[in-house]
Amino acid sequence: MAMKIRLARGGSKKRPHYAIVATDSRMPRDGRFLEKLGTYNPLLPKDSEDRIKMDVERVQYWLAQGAQPTDRVARFLEAAGIKDKSERKNLKKGEPGKAAKERAEKRAAREAAANAPAEEAASE
């Protein structure tokens, strides 16, 4: 059985509240789970202690059983010091789009044209 430690969404529209759960990866996001390991409330301030609550011992148990955390839960575990920080790659998402590249090229050409006459006057 492929185990996951992931978030299950609760709360009303535009007021999310998540449960950190251990579940079979084939189950739906908010469906059946084996154990609730903690909670996550993204509406609270980032420095609040109540924002993320986890039962660390149970999380370590499920990790030892082979459960794989999702990206968001892995970040929570890294912040808690349970899991080593891993290198993340953002290959294409961090790269500007086609229109942004064209705007940058036009801006660079305008700046080069504006600086060229000023440099010629300074050299004379």
From TrEMBL:
Can the keyword Cytoplasm be found in this entry's annotation?
A: no
- Which keywords does this chain's UniProt record carry? Ribonucleoprotein, Ribosomal protein
Name any Gene Ontology BP term.
Answer: translation
Ranges of compositional bias, category Low complexity: 111-124
**GO cellular component terms, A-Z:** cytoplasm; small ribosomal subunit
Give the start-end ranges of region Disordered. 85-124
Q: Which GO terms describe its molecular function?
A: structural constituent of ribosome
UniProt entry tagged with the keyword Methyltransferase: no
Bias kind Basic and acidic residues: ranges? 85-110
What the entry lists under InterPro entries is as follows: Ribosomal_bS16, Ribosomal_bS16_dom_sf
Q: Indicate the family of this protein.
A: Belongs to the bacterial ribosomal protein bS16 family.
Q: What is this protein called?
A: Small ribosomal subunit protein bS16
State the organism of origin: Paracoccus thiocyanatus
